[in-house]
Each structure stands twice: as C-alpha cells, then as structure tokens.
From TrEMBL:
Belongs to the UPF0410 family. InterPro entries: Transgly_assoc. It comes from Paractinoplanes bogorensis. This is GlsB/YeaQ/YmgE family stress response membrane protein. It is a multi-pass membrane protein. It comes from the Bacteria.
Length: 91
C-alpha cells in the first residue's frame, strides 16, 4: 500500500464516518479520531459485504457499496456513542 492509498483510505474513512454520524439521530459525544476509525472500519467491512453480495463491481459509482458502508458506520457510531453515554452515567 502506498502513502497515497493510506491518505485516500483516511479521507474516505472520515467521509464515511461523518455520513454515518449524520444518519444517527441526536448528539454523539465521541471524538473525531474515533469517527475516523469507525469510518475506515465501516468502509472496509462495507466493501467486503458488497463483494460478498456481488454488488461491488458495477458500472459507474457503487451506490449500494456506499450504502453498506454508511449503514455500518451509523451502526458503529450509535454503538460507540451509546456505550460512552452509559459509561459516563455510572461514574
């Protein structure tokens, strides 16, 4: 993997994480770096799921793959924000 590939993955991860964060209702008290990590993981898992479903190689832009990635990012953001919220209450 090249430096350009790593930078591209981080930018795509940030965008996917931000889109996932926008989909989840309410305020999420999680740092931007955690949103980035969730976005990168969701982008990778979304690509794997899209390939497994046979929808990753389409002509033009892969909207279904993007949908998988954003949904996974939203689930990740909701889980992490929910865990952090419960954790703060018990302190």
């Amino acid at each position: 993997m090249t430096v350009t590939g790593i930078i591209t993955a981080l930018i795509v991860g940030l965008i996917i994480g931000a889109l996932g964060r926008l989909v989840v209702p309410g305020k999420q008290n999680i740092p931007i770096w955690l949103t980035l990590v969730i976005g990168v993981v969701a982008a990778l898992l979304g690509t794997v799921l899209a390939r497994a479903a046979g929808v990753a190689d389409t002509a033009g832009f892969d909207w279904i793959e993007l949908l998988f990635q954003v949904v996974l990012a939203a689930i990740g953001v909701a889980l992490v924000a929910g865990y952090g919220g419960r954790r703060r209450i018990h302190r």
